[in-house]
C-alpha cells in the first residue's frame, strides 16, 4: 500500500481525538455558561492559551451585528464595532512575555467571554503527517517525559482530524497544559521543540498541533499557495467546477450517477485484480486449490502483520498467500455464512475450497466481511487468502475478529485465528486502486484533496499570532518528488500570505531512514530524491530572503522496519536549535550537519566541500563510509573516503573517470557515518562532476 495510507490507518489506531473532543465539549460548556450565543471568539482563544509576544495580537470572533466589542487584557482595553455580519477583529498592542496567568475578557453589550490562565511567550505551529503527530506516549522513554513534565508554561493546542471544501471559521480544538498526566498525548516532536525554546528563552511556549498521520502536502496548502503555481490553475478550476456541480445535483441525476459509478467501480476492480494477479505465481500455480500441496510452507499465527510473521516480510512488496483448513460443525452446515476477517493491508482475494469467496482492492482500514449464501457442508474445508501489499509492512490488523459466523444465528461461530501456513507469491506491478465515486458525498473533502486540511484545521487558526511553523512531512509524497520542492514553497508562501507575515519562520525535517538496507545498491531510487526535494524547497524559500527557513535532517534517526522512528526528542532538539539560532539569534552550538556545497576532481579522486563541517569526523571513529561514485556508465559503486580537515577525498579503484558522486542516497543509509563536531550527521547528496 502507499505509505500515506498505512500511516492513516495507524494514526486512527493510535491517536486520541475522542479525548480531545471531550475536553473541548467541556470547555465549550464552560464558555457558553459565560456568554450568550451572540458573542464567540476564534477557535484558538480558549482556557490556558499562549499569546505571541512582541507583535500585534489579533483577537477575532463574532458578535451581534454592528455592536461595540471591547477586548481587555492586562492594562490594555481595545474597542471595535462588529460588522453587519457580526465579525470583528481587535489588535492588541505587542505584549511582553509573561508566565503570570491572566484573563482575557471580551464584552459586547451584555455578553461576555472570559478566558483564564492566559500566558504570553512564543507560539509555533506543528504540522505534517504522523511523525509530527506521533505522541510522547509511543516515543522513546515516555516515563522520563512524564516524570519531567513539570513546566506548566508549555501548552499544546490540538485540532481534530477534519477536512473541508472551503476555509472554515472554527475547529473544535483545545489547549492542554503540560503535566505528567497530559504530556503522553502531546506531539513528541512539538513538545521537545517547545522544551528547547522554553529552556533557552525562559518564556512560555504554545504549540498549535495541526497534524494528521499519512497526509500528503497538497491538503495543507491554501488556495493562496496554489495561486503561485501556474501548473495548478486547471486543477483548481476543475475542483471549483465539481463543487458547483455537486451543489446543483437533483434526484434523477444522482440516481444515474450512482448506477454509472457502481458499474465503473466493478470494471476498475476487475481490471485491478487481472493486472495484479494475472501472471502472479500463486494464481498460476493454484495456491488456492484445496489439493495444492503446502507441506513445504512456513507456519505462522494470524492475525498479524508481515513483519511480525517473518522479518523478511517487513519490507516485502508483493503477494503473500495464507492457507489453513477448518471443520464446519453440523450446527453451521448448509446455512448462509459470513467470513469475518481483519482489515488487510493492502488488498486481498479470499477462497474457500475452489470458490472465490470475495475480494477487496486497497481498502486497508476496513475489516472484511465475505458472505457465502450457499453455505458449506459439514466437515473439512480449506480457506486461502492472497494478500497483496504494494509498499511497506502488509498483513492482517491485530486484535480484530477472524472467524466464520452463521448469519441467522450469530451465537454459532468458528474461529479462524491461530495457526496458518504461508508462502510468498511474488512481486506484483503497482496498479492504481479502483476509486468508488459517491455522487452524494461532497467533492474536495477527501483525505488527499488539495486544500482540504488547510480549510478545516488551519484556516480557523488564522490570523492567530505565531512566530513560525515546524513541518515533518514527505513520506506520503515520496513517489512524486519532482513536484515536491514547488509544493513545499507554495505551502510556505501560502501560509505567509494568509497570516500576512512574510517573515513567518519555517523549520522542515528531512526524512529519516526507512525500509530495508541495501548494501549492494550504493544509490537507490526512492527516498533519496524526496530528501533532495525537501532541501531544494527550503533553498527556494530562502532565496527570496523572507523570514528564516531551515532543514534539519533525521537521516541518522531512522529504523529500517518502522516508518515512525521513536527518537522524537532529538528531532525536536534539532528543530529548537535551528529556531534559536536562525529566528532568535541565540547560540546553541549548531543545528545543521555537514552540507555539501561543491566538488572538484583531480584524476580519479574527488574532493568534497561542505558548510557546517567544522570538526569533521565519523560516528564511532571508523573510516568514513556511505560515499559512492559513478563513471561514464552511470553505475554507482561504493567508494573509499578520507577526511582531510573540513573536506572529504573520495575515490574508487574501479572508477578511473568519476562523473557522479553521492552520499547516503538510499532509503535507509545504514553505513553513512560522517558527522561534524556537534555530532550532527552529514546531509545526503548526489551531484554530477565537472570534467
Question: Could you write a compact summary of the structure shown?
Answer:
With 691 residues, the protein is of the alpha+beta class.
Task: Characterise the protein shown here.
The protein has 691 residues and is an alpha+beta fold. It folds into three domains: 3-229 and 446-582, Rossmann fold (3-Layer(aba) Sandwich), CATH 3.40.50; 281-426, Jelly Rolls, CATH 2.60.120; 595-688, Immunoglobulin-like (Sandwich), CATH 2.60.40. Helices cover 24% and strands 30% of the residues. Strands 2, 4, 5, 7, 8, 9, 10, 11, 23, 24 and 25 form an eleven-stranded mixed β-sheet that branches. It starts with a helix and ends with a strand. Residues 1-36 have low confidence and may be disordered.
Task: Describe the protein's topology.
Layout (H helix, E strand, L loop, with lengths): L2 H12 L2 H18 L5 E2 L8 E3 L4 E6 L5 E6 L2 E6 L5 E6 L5 E11 L2 E18 L1 H4 L8 H7 L5 E5 L15 E4 L10 H14 L3 E7 L11 H4 L6 H15 L3 H27 L3 H5 L12 E5 L3 H4 L8 E11 L8 E9 L1 E6 L2 E6 L6 E6 L6 E11 L5 E2 L6 E4 L6 E3 L2 E9 L25 H7 L9 E5 L8 H18 L6 E6 L16 H17 L5 E5 L14 H15 L12 E8 L2 E7 L5 E2 L8 E4 L5 E3 L1 E5 L2 E5 L8 E4 L10 E2 L9 E4 L3
Parallel strand pairs: 2-8, 8-11, 8-23, 9-11, 23-24, 24-25
Antiparallel strand pairs: 1-3, 3-6, 4-5, 4-7, 7-8, 9-10, 12-22, 13-18, 13-22, 14-17, 14-19, 14-20, 15-16, 15-18, 20-21, 26-27, 27-32, 28-34, 29-30, 29-33, 31-32, 33-35
Helix pairs in contact: 5-14, 12-13
Amino acid at each position: 500500500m502507499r505509505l500515506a495510507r498505512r500511516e492513516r490507518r495507524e494514526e486512527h489506531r493510535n491517536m486520541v481525538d475522542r479525548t480531545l473532543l471531550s475536553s473541548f465539549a467541556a470547555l465549550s460548556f464552560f464558555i457558553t455558561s459565560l456568554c450568550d450565543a451572540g458573542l464567540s471568539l476564534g477557535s484558538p482563544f480558549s482556557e490556558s492559551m499562549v499569546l505571541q509576544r512582541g507583535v500585534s495580537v489579533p483577537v477575532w470572533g463574532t458578535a451581534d451585528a454592528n455592536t461595540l466589542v471591547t477586548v481587555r487584557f492586562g492594562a490594555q482595553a481595545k474597542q471595535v464595532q462588529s460588522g453587519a455580519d457580526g465579525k470583528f477583529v481587535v489588535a492588541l498592542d505587542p505584549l511582553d512575555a509573561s508566565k503570570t496567568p491572566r484573563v482575557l475578557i471580551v464584552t459586547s453589550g451584555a455578553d461576555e467571554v472570559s478566558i483564564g490562565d492566559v500566558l504570553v511567550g512564543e507560539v509555533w505551529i506543528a504540522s505534517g503527517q504522523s511523525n509530527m503527530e506521533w505522541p510522547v506516549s509511543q516515543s522513546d522513554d515516555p516515563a522520563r517525559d512524564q516524570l519531567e513534565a513539570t513546566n506548566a508554561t508549555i501548552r499544546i493546542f490540538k485540532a481534530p482530524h477534519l477536512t473541508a471544501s472551503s476555509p472554515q471559521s472554527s475547529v473544535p480544538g483545545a489547549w492542554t497544559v503540560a503535566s505528567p498526566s497530559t504530556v503522553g498525548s502531546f506531539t513528541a516532536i512539538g513538545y521537545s521543540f517547545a522544551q528547547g525554546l522554553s529552556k533557552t528563552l525562559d518564556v512560555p511556549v504554545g504549540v498549535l498541533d495541526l497534524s494528521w498521520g499519512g497526509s500528503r502536502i497538497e491538503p495543507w496548502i491554501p488556495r493562496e499557495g496554489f495561486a503561485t503555481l501556474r501548473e495548478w490553475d486547471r486543477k483548481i478550476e476543475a475542483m471549483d467546477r465539481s463543487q458547483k456541480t455537486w451543489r446543483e445535483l437533483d434526484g434523477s441525476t444522482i440516481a444515474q450517477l450512482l448506477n454509472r459509478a457502481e458499474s465503473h467501480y466493478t470494471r476498475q476492480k476487475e481490471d485491478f485484480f487481472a493486472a495484479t494477479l494475472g501472471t502472479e505465481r500463486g494464481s498460476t500455480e493454484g495456491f488456492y486449490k484445496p489439493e495444492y500441496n503446502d507441506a513445504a510452507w512456513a507456519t505462522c499465527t494470524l492475525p498479524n502483520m508481515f513483519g511480525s510473521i517473518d522479518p523478511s516480510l517487513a519490507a516485502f512488496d508483493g503477494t503473500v498467500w495464507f492457507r489453513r483448513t477448518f471443520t464446519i460443525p453440523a450446527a453451521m452446515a448448509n446455512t448462509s455464512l459470513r467470513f469475518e476477517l481483519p482489515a488487510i493491508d493492502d488488498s486481498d482475494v479470499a477462497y474457500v475450497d475452489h470458490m472465490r469467496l470475495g475480494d477487496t482492492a486497497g481498502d486497508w482500514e476496513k475489516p472484511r466481511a465475505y458472505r457465502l449464501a450457499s453455505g458449506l457442508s459439514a466437515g473439512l474445508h480449506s480457506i486461502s487468502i492472497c494478500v497483496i501489499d504494494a509498499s511497506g509492512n502488509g498483513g492482517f490488523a491485530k486484535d480484530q475478529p477472524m472467524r466464520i459466523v452463521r448469519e441467522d444465528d450469530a451465537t454459532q461461530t468458528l474461529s479462524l485465528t491461530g495457526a496458518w501456513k504461508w508462502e510468498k507469491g511474488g512481486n506484483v506491478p503497482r496498479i492504481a486502486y479502483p476509486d468508488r465515486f459517491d455522487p452524494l458525498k461532497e467533492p474536495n473533502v477527501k483525505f488527499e484533496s488539495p486544500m482540504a486540511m488547510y480549510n478545516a484545521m488551519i484556516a480557523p487558526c488564522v490570523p492567530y499570532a505565531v512566530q513560525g511553523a515546524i513541518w515533518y512531512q514527505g513520506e506520503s509524497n515520496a513517489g512524486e518528488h519532482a513536484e515536491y520542492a514547488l509544493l513545499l514553497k507554495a505551502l510556505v508562501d501560502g501560509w505567509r500570505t494568509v497570516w500576512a507575515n512574510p517573515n513567518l519562520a519555517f523549520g522542515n525535517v528531512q526524512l529519516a531512514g526507512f525500509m530495508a538496507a541495501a548494501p549492494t545498491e550504493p544509490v537507490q531510487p526512492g527516498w533519496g530524491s524526496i530528501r533532495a526535494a525537501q532541501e531544494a524547497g527550503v533553498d527556494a524559500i530562502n532565496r527570496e530572503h523572507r523570514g528564516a527557513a531551515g532543514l534539519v535532517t533525521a537521516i541518522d534517526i531512522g529504523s529500517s522496519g518502522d516508518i515512525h522512528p521513536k527518537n522524537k526528542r532529538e528531532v525536536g532538539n534539532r528543530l529548537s536549535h535551528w529556531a534559536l539560532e536562525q529566528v532568535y539569534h541565540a547560540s546553541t552550538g549548531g543545528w545543521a550537519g555537514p552540507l555539501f556545497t561543491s566538488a572538484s576532481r583531480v584524476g580519479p579522486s574527488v574532493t568534497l566541500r561542505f558548510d557546517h563541517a567544522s570538526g569533521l569526523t565519523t560516528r564511532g571513529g571508523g573510516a568514513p563510509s556511505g560515499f559512492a561514485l559513478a563513471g561514464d556508465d552511470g553505475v554507482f559503486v561504493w567508494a573509499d573516503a578520507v577526511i582531510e580537515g573540513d573536506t572529504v577525498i573520495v575515490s574508487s579503484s574501479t572508477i578511473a573517470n568519476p562523473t557522479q558522486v553521492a552520499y547516503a542516497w538510499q532509503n535507509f543509509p545504514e553505513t553513512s557515518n560522517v558527522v561534524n563536531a556537534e555530532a550532527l550527521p552529514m546531509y545526503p547528496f548526489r551531484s554530477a562532476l565537472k570534467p
